[in-house]
C-alpha cells in the first residue's frame, strides 16, 4: 500500500484478509468498508448472532491509526458510557466537561449495538457527532477523529428522533442468518473461523502494510472530488428521484449529496475518472429502509440501466405497429378497375335492367318480376334503348414504384435505427460484464438481474427487427402498377431520436 495514495491491488489484498472466515458476509463487509472510505456510517439490521459486531471489528482493522470503540446500548445507558465521565476538577472550577479519552469522541471506528434503544438525550448528542464529527464538551466544541460508525439494530423505530438518527446512516444493510448452503460451510469451518463468523473469536491478523493510514483516506476523498458524474448517470438519478416521489418515498437532498459522494469514492477507489451507470447498483442500500423497498429500487434500476427510454421496446413496438397497420390497410384497399390502356373500365347497364331491379325489389307495388321486366322494356324502348354506364371494382388496389420505394425507404431508416440500438444494447452488456469483473463493490445479484434484463431487451429488439423486415417485404409484394404512380405521404409514427 503506498504511503499517500490508495493502491487498488493492495485494497484487494486487504479485502481478502478481512473476509477470512466470514460466511455470506462479503457483500456487507465490502459495503461497510466503502462507507468508511467515504466517511459515512453503516447500519446493520438483523437478529443477534449474525456477525454484526465481527464486521465492525474488521472494518476497524482496515485503518492503521484509528482507535476502536464499542458499546451495547440499553434504555438504561447513560451518556458517561459513550462520551466519558465528568471531570471532577472541571466541576470544581464550575465547568461541565468530560474525560473523553478512550470513549466515542476520540474513536476512529465505533460499533454501537442496539443504537435505537438509547434515550433521546443520547441520540441527540450522537446526531452532531455522526454528522459534523464534533462533540460539545462543556462550553467548547471539539473536533473528533471519527471515520465511521457501524450501528446495529433488530428493528428501526418510527418516532421522530429515531428517524432523524436513522437518516445519519447512509448505508442500511440487512444481515440475515446464513442460508442452508452457508450453514453447512459455517459448521464445516475450523473453530476459529466459525467463531469469527458468528460474532466471536479472534479477528484475522491484517499486515500493517495493508492497513490504510489517514493520509491515504484523505487522498482518496480528494481524488473522489475530481471524479465526474456523466450526463447519463445524472439523468438516471433524476428519473429515480421522480419515481421515488411517485412511490411516496422521501429522500432528503442531504442524502442525495452523500450518495453522489459515495459513487465517486467507489469509482476513485478502482482508479476510474468517472462514475459508471452500473455503480448505481449501490443505491438500493442507500435509499430504502427495508428489504421490500431495497428490492423495488433494485428492480427499477435493473430495468432502466443500459436502456434508452427513447428507444425502449415499447416505443419501438408502437413504431413497428404503425407500419404493420399501414401495410394491412394498403393490402386490403380496393381500387377502381383499369383496362389495358390504364383507363377506368366501365360496364354498360341498361335502363331496363336498372328498372327491373328496382321493380323486383318492391318498387312496383308487388308487381312480379316478369311484369317488371316487361314494363322496364317498354320504358327502355320509349327512351330509344339508351343504357347507363357504371364503374366496376373487380380487384385490389395497385401501387406504383414511387409508392413502394417510399414505404421501403422509410422502413430501411427504421431498420438502421433498430440495428444501431441493437449495437448499443450489445455494448451495454459488454460494459456491464467488464465493470462487474473489475468492481470491488458490485452486488452479484444486481449484476445478474441487470444482465437478464438487457438480454430480454435484446431479444425484444431482435423480434421487432424481424417484424419490421416482414413489413418491408409486405410492401415490396404489393400489387404493382406499370407506371411509377404517385408519391405517398410518409407513415406517421412517434419520432425516434438520433
UniProtKB/TrEMBL annotation:
Domain (AAA+ ATPase) ranges: 38-179
Gene3D superfamilies for this protein: P-loop containing nucleotide triphosphate hydrolases (3.40.50.300)
Domain of life: Bacteria
Protein name: AAA family ATPase
Amino acid at each position: 500500500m503506498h504511503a499517500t495514495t490508495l493502491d487498488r491491488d493492495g485494497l484487494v489484498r486487504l479485502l481478502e484478509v478481512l473476509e477470512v472466515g466470514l460466511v455470506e458476509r462479503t457483500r456487507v463487509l465490502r459495503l461497510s468498508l466503502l462507507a468508511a472510505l467515504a466517511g459515512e456510517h453503516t447500519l446493520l439490521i438483523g437478529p443477534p448472532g449474525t456477525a454484526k459486531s465481527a464486521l465492525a471489528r474488521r472494518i476497524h482493522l482496515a485503518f492503521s491509526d484509528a482507535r476502536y470503540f464499542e458499546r451495547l446500548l440499553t434504555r438504561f445507558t447513560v451518556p458517561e458510557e459513550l462520551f466519558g465521565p465528568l471531570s471532577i476538577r472541571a466541576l470544581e472550577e464550575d465547568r461541565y466537561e468530560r474525560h473523553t479519552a478512550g470513549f466515542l469522541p476520540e474513536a476512529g471506528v465505533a460499533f454501537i449495538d442496539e443504537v435505537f434503544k438509547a434515550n433521546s438525550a443520547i441520540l441527540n448528542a450522537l446526531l452532531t457527532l455522526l454528522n459534523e464529527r464534533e462533540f460539545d464538551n462543556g462550553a467548547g466544541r471539539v473536533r473528533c477523529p471519527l471515520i465511521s460508525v457501524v450501528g446495529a439494530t433488530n428493528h428501526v423505530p418510527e418516532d421522530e428522533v429515531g428517524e432523524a438518527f436513522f437518516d445519519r446512516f447512509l448505508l442500511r444493510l440487512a444481515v440475515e442468518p446464513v442460508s442452508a448452503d452457508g450453514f453447512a460451510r459455517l459448521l464445516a469451518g475450523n473453530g476459529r473461523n466459525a467463531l469469527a463468523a458468528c460474532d466471536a473469536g479472534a479477528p484475522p491478523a491484517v499486515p500493517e502494510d495493508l492497513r490504510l493510514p489517514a493520509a491515504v483516506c484523505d487522498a482518496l476523498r480528494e481524488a473522489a472530488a475530481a471524479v465526474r458524474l456523466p450526463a447519463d448517470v445524472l439523468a438516471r438519478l433524476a428519473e429515480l428521484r421522480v419515481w421515488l416521489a411517485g412511490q411516496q418515498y422521501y429522500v432528503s437532498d442531504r442524502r442525495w449529496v452523500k450518495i453522489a459522494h459515495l459513487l465517486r469514492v467507489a469509482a476513485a477507489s478502482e482508479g476510474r475518472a468517472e462514475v459508471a451507470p452500473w455503480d448505481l447498483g449501490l443505491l438500493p442500500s442507500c435509499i430504502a429502509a427495508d428489504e421490500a423497498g431495497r428490492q423495488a429500487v433494485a428492480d427499477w434500476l435493473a430495468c432502466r440501466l443500459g436502456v434508452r427510454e427513447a428507444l425502449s421496446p415499447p416505443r419501438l413496438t408502437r413504431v413497428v405497429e404503425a407500419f404493420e397497420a399501414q401495410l394491412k390497410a394498403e393490402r386490403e384497399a380496393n381500387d377502381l378497375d383499369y383496362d389495358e390502356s390504364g383507363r377506368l373500365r366501365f360496364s354498360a347497364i341498361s335502363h331496363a335492367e336498372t328498372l327491373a331491379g328496382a321493380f323486383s325489389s318492391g318498387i312496383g307495388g308487388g308487381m312480379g318480376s316478369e311484369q317488371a321486366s316487361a314494363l322496364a322494356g317498354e320504358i327502355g324502348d320509349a327512351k330509344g334503348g339508351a343504357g347507363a354506364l357504371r364503374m366496376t371494382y373487380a380487384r385490389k388496389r395497385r401501387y406504383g414504384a414511387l409508392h413502394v420505394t417510399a414505404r421501403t425507404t422509410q422502413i430501411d431508416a427504421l431498420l438502421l435505427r433498430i440495428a444501431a440500438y441493437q449495437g448499443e444494447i450489445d455494448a451495454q452488456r459488454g460494459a456491464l460484464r467488464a465493470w462487474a469483473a473489475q468492481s470491488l463493490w458490485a452486488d452479484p445479484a444486481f449484476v445478474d438481474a441487470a444482465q437478464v434484463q438487457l438480454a430480454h431487451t435484446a431479444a425484444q429488439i431482435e423480434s421487432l427487427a424481424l417484424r419490421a423486415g416482414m413489413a418491408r417485404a409486405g410492401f415490396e409484394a404489393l400489387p404493382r402498377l406499370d407506371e411509377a404512380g404517385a408519391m405517398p405521404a410518409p407513415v406517421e409514427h412517434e419520432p425516434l431520436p438520433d
